[in-house]
């Protein structure tokens, strides 16, 4: 006779197959009940079914404990969804994303007002640039080689840039404080010594270069390359881009001159600010590509709801 499928996985169903109960279980239950009633015996006194060669199923009470009790336990286990990301991680992730996009748009507008870079304290149109971008400027006084000038959007772009920068600073402080308090960095981002071996790193790098995301359980874990990259972005690139940004502020520099003198001047801070911003943009692009390859909808859903995909939550 065919087996009757049930949902979930039963505890103690070894040899029966995952998620399936042999159809003779109800028959054994009926047989035990009939024997107890017809013979005037209590259910506990009815001999186990295994004595009759019917399998390792005992009396009705034993069968209830093994079947119904296990089913309820497994049901709770099967429907319990494990959180992938905490509420703080999700909130700070999306706030930082919005602020970074605003910084990117406004930063490009600010850059177009003077697409030339220098090193040191001073730099202007009469100073030889360290390098210049081959793009038109939004100011006619800046020599670019183009015969036209872009519309000047320097006003609103600077206002949006400064406001978004403070949004990133406050969100980052909250994220780092909660992450240190809850052990988020130690549990999820700090790589183990085995992860830092050349064999482990080379394997992960090769997978990324082939654009092959991880599969199975590894798909929902940070690999060594991800851990190192996130630590570099969180504790390296973001603090440096904020620091160099503050080094271009006359108000901050007048109060704390060491903020910019450590870089060699405001123009040096501006040049470093540009390169660090480019690295962050490259990180963002590669991050989005890998999210798309590993399942864009379920990854975004996990970052919004904090839950993994349903097929990864069953036990």
Topology:
Layout: E1 4-5, E2 20-21, H1 24-38, H2 60-79, H3 87-112, E3 116-117, E4 131-132, H4 154-182, H5 184-189, H6 198-209, H7 224-246, H8 250-255, H9 258-261, H10 266-293, H11 296-305
Antiparallel strand pairs: 1-2, 3-4
Helix pairs in contact: 3-4, 7-10
Descriptive overview:
This protein is mainly alpha-helical. It has 2 domains: 4-79, no CATH class; 87-312, Up-down Bundle (Fumarate Reductase Cytochrome B subunit). Helices cover 57% and strands 3% of the residues. The protein is built from 11 helices and 4 strands; from the N terminus they run ββαααββαααααααα. It has a two-stranded antiparallel sheet. Helix 3 (87-112) runs antiparallel to helix 4. The longest helix has 29 residues, at 154-182. The two termini are 28 Å apart. The relative contact order is 0.09.
């Amino acid at each position: 006779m065919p087996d009757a499928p049930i949902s979930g996985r039963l505890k103690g169903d070894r040899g029966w197959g995952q998620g399936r109960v042999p159809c003779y279980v109800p028959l054994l239950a009926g047989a035990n009940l009939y024997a107890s009633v017809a013979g005037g015996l209590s259910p506990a006194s009815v001999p186990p079914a295994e004595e009759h060669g019917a399998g390792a199923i005992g009396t009705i009470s034993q069968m209830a404990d093994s079947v119904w009790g296990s089913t309820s336990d497994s049901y709770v286990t099967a429907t319990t969804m494990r959180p992938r990301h905490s509420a703080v991680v999700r909130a700070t992730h999306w706030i930082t994303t919005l602020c970074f996009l605003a910084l990117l748009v406004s930063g490009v507008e600010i850059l177009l007002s003077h697409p030339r870079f220098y090193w040191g304290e001073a730099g202007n149109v009469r100073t030889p640039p360290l390098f210049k971008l081959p793009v038109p400027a939004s100011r006619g006084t800046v020599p670019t080689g183009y015969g036209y000038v872009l519309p000047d959007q320097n006003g609103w772009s600077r206002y949006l840039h400064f406001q978004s920068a403070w949004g990133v600073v406050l969100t980052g402080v909250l994220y780092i404080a909660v992450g240190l308090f809850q052990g988020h960095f130690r549990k999820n981002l700090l790589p183990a010594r085995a992860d830092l071996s050349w064999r482990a790193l080379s394997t992960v790098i090769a997978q990324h270069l082939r654009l092959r995301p991880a599969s199975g359980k590894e798909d929902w874990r940070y690999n060594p390359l991800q851990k190192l990259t996130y630590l570099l972005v969180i504790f390296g690139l973001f603090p440096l881009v904020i620091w160099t940004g503050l080094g271009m502020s006359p108000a901050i520099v007048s109060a704390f001159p060491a903020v910019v003198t450590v870089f060699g001047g405001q123009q040096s801070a501006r040049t470093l600010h540009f390169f660090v911003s480019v690295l962050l943009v490259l990180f963002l692009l590669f991050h989005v590509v890998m999210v798309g390859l590993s399942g864009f909808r379920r990854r975004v859903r996990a970052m919004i709801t904090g839950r993994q995909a349903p097929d990864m939550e069953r036990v």
